[in-house]
């Protein structure tokens, strides 16, 4: 079944997502050694468990934070993601209510 209409929030502007999520997986055995000092002031720790660290970073600081993480930590995998669409929609409606 095809959709009859499409709703574009904010005119398709991605300015509503003001942050990115950076998820890193450390090399085995390095979990206890990893320090996030390199991204102090750039990123906020969301979670840290079993060698996987998730950070929230301002969109405009994503490249800088990623560069520092890669230069200072024993990273096996790194993923940069936009926030979940549900959060973006909630933010859009919250701004429109103001």
Can you describe what's shown?
This protein has 98 residues and is α+β, with helices and mostly antiparallel strands. It has a single domain (17-97), classed as YebC, transcriptional regulation domain (Alpha-Beta Plaits), CATH 3.30.70. It has helices spanning 62-72, 85-97; strands spanning 19-26, 43-49, 52-58, 75-81. A four-stranded antiparallel beta sheet has the order 2-3-1-4, covered by helices on one side. β2 (43-49) and β3 (52-58) form a beta hairpin. Mean pLDDT is 81; it is low at 9-13.
Fill in the keyword field for this structure.
98 residues, 30% strand, Alpha-Beta Plaits, 4-stranded antiparallel β-sheet, 4 strands, single chain, alpha+beta
Query: What is the β-strand count?
Result: 4
Query: Can you tell me the CATH class?
Result: Alpha Beta
**Which whole number gives the mean pLDDT?**
81
End-to-end separation: 36 Å
Number of domains: 1
For the CA atoms, what is the radius of gyration?
A: 17 Å
CATH fold naming:
Alpha-Beta Plaits
Q: What is the CATH superfamily classification? A: YebC, transcriptional regulation domain
Strand composition percent: 25-35%
> Which term fits the overall shape?
elongated
What is the spatial order of strands in the main beta sheet? 2-3-1-4
Poorly predicted runs of 5 or more residues: 9-13
* CATH architectural grouping: 2-Layer Sandwich
């Amino acid at each position: 079944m095809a959709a009859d209409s499409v709703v574009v929030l904010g005119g398709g502007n991605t300015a509503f997502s003001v942050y990115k999520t950076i998820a890193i997986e450390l090399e085995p055995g390095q979990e206890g050694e990893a320090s996030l000092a390199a991204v102090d002031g750039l990123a906020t720790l969301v979670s840290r468990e079993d060698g996987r660290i998730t950070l929230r970073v301002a969109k405009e600081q994503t490249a800088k934070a990623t560069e520092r993480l890669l230069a200072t930590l024993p990273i096996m995998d790194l993923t940069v993601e936009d926030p979940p669409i549900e959060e973006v929609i909630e933010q859009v409606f919250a701004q429109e209510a103001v």
